[in-house]
Amino acid sequence: MPTSSTPAEKKITLASLGEFGLIASVTAGRTQPASTLLGPGDDAAVVAAPDGRVVACTDVLVEGVHFRMDWSTPEQVGRKAAAANLADVAAMGAVPTALLVGLACPADTDVELLQGLTDGLWAEAEAAGAGVVGGDVAASAQLVLSVTALGSLDGLDPVTRSGARPGDVLAVAGRLGWSAAGLAVLGRGFRSPVAVVGAHRVPEPPYAAGPQAARAGATAMIDVSDGLLADLGHVAVASGVVVDVRSAAFSVTGRLADVGQALGVDPLHWILTGGEDHALAAAFPGSVPEGWLVIGEVRAGAAAVLVDGRPYEGGPAGWEHFSR
Amino acid sequence: MPTSSTPAEKKITLASLGEFGLIASVTAGRTQPASTLLGPGDDAAVVAAPDGRVVACTDVLVEGVHFRMDWSTPEQVGRKAAAANLADVAAMGAVPTALLVGLACPADTDVELLQGLTDGLWAEAEAAGAGVVGGDVAASAQLVLSVTALGSLDGLDPVTRSGARPGDVLAVAGRLGWSAAGLAVLGRGFRSPVAVVGAHRVPEPPYAAGPQAARAGATAMIDVSDGLLADLGHVAVASGVVVDVRSAAFSVTGRLADVGQALGVDPLHWILTGGEDHALAAAFPGSVPEGWLVIGEVRAGAAAVLVDGRPYEGGPAGWEHFSR
């Protein structure tokens, strides 16, 4: 006798739970960090900004563009959305304090999915020392996540893109190319190696390296979200300098080398052009702090990014939305 | 001879201009307030938070749900999106300092529309004393605007929803019912009277009344976004009090009375249940500051909102997304 199937449980959707029900469900039982002076539940939150300044940035992620629900769990999507913003705060030399989340999604979205998303946002915020202090939800045709991150400079000057000077040493903290390798694997229908696929699903930005670089006197810094060369291009233009990357600086071994061999791709291409790992790239006037890898130098000249002294010929240098 | 028609000019879309082109186009030539220490163009902005705290909130607006591009100009949509957030900051007793904008829209969106949106965001931010300090744009199926507002309490305590006490006087600053009347007019295919239609397109929150109420010792405050009774319900629950509104407090005259008569609706219904005017409602322990209208009182008892001592029977008390 076949096992009798239980009647399909009716899923709880956003429409059935309602806006306020969802908000109650995803805010209950969370522990806010000390910097959250007033958390969710009022017209606005209040967050500590101890040195009288607050760092703030916003990133938008769209289902099908920035993530696929069949490639990632809701929690992974939440972590990734949070990481993209928290890394921007770190790239100014600041410590993340808070996230606010604008969510638009179809009314028939399963509340479990939204709880997973929120769990992911919380997990990544906590990893960076921040809390989720507010947000809003509305009905839309497609899932869109707009995350705002706040941070504290703790008395340091913000490290912008425009301060790199000829003679500075160029260095990175964090992984490069792993997310691009993971995306290539997923795009060919594979689900392993887990290490690179996981790197695409959930980046691991080196949050602490941002304030570390600021304390060490970094002259310019950026978070690698669109690809190393593309993002260094912003530093080159803003600072009016030549940024020259030395390809031999990257030792391509282990997983990245294996995946490259399996897919017939030179992993250096992923390292130079792959986005979404949210490594930090910075220029330093002298020695480089512990944990940072020297990858090149800053020279005088018309703004340009070079690899081993020449323009990189390996393909499009980065990812820009909407461009054809 | 008929005037020869010029060939249709090819519109510039987000896809043709690109993400960075759009950002350059909408940030050029703007004047930031003094509170913007570092404006758009880097990984994150830096905003002044003079008393060591920052007020922060996020609102999401979706085309077809919160606004219609055939009922409003892009600039009006931008103003409304900004106003909804800036009013939340004011409702804490704070002065708005900055907006960040997460925008998702179809790749074939006309850049003129996006410039109009941005002009509206800037106009409303400036009206409240704030600047637009950052944002992000991504491709999506539907236009979604997620706006985050920041503000400064300037040394005052935040005014929450939970401080109302029996004996407090209930008062409002700003208009009530005008946006609902305008929506009713538009919904029946009319475009006038301009005063109420305009109120639906662009609310006029009384930003300065927020800090004014905080200085006057307001015990609780909320921004009327979902309807007076619905929003007072949040105050009643958070404070554990009865909020009793006196209907005779509202003098229904002029435009609102005319429109009510023309459409066969009692304007009091719009005043009590209409959202989106972003008036401020507050409880005061004693006298009410200039410009505020006394509309009722706070009493001891199980949390409830009453009108003239009784539950309001005039229909659904407010607007909740997703509810059936």
From TrEMBL, chains A, B:
Mg(2+) 4 binds at D43, D88. Keywords: ATP-binding, Kinase, Magnesium, Metal-binding, Nucleotide-binding, Thiamine biosynthesis, Transferase. Its EC number is 2.7.4.16. One of its GO terms (molecular function) is ATP binding. Pathway: Cofactor biosynthesis; thiamine diphosphate biosynthesis; thiamine diphosphate from thiamine phosphate: step 1/1. One of its GO terms (biological process) is thiamine biosynthetic process. Pfam families: AIRS (PF00586). Mg(2+) 2 binds at D59, D88. Catalyzes the ATP-dependent phosphorylation of thiamine-monophosphate (TMP) to form thiamine-pyrophosphate (TPP), the active form of vitamin B1. Reaction mechanism of ThiL seems to utilize a direct, inline transfer of the gamma-phosphate of ATP to TMP rather than a phosphorylated enzyme intermediate. This is Thiamine-monophosphate kinase. The gene is thiL.
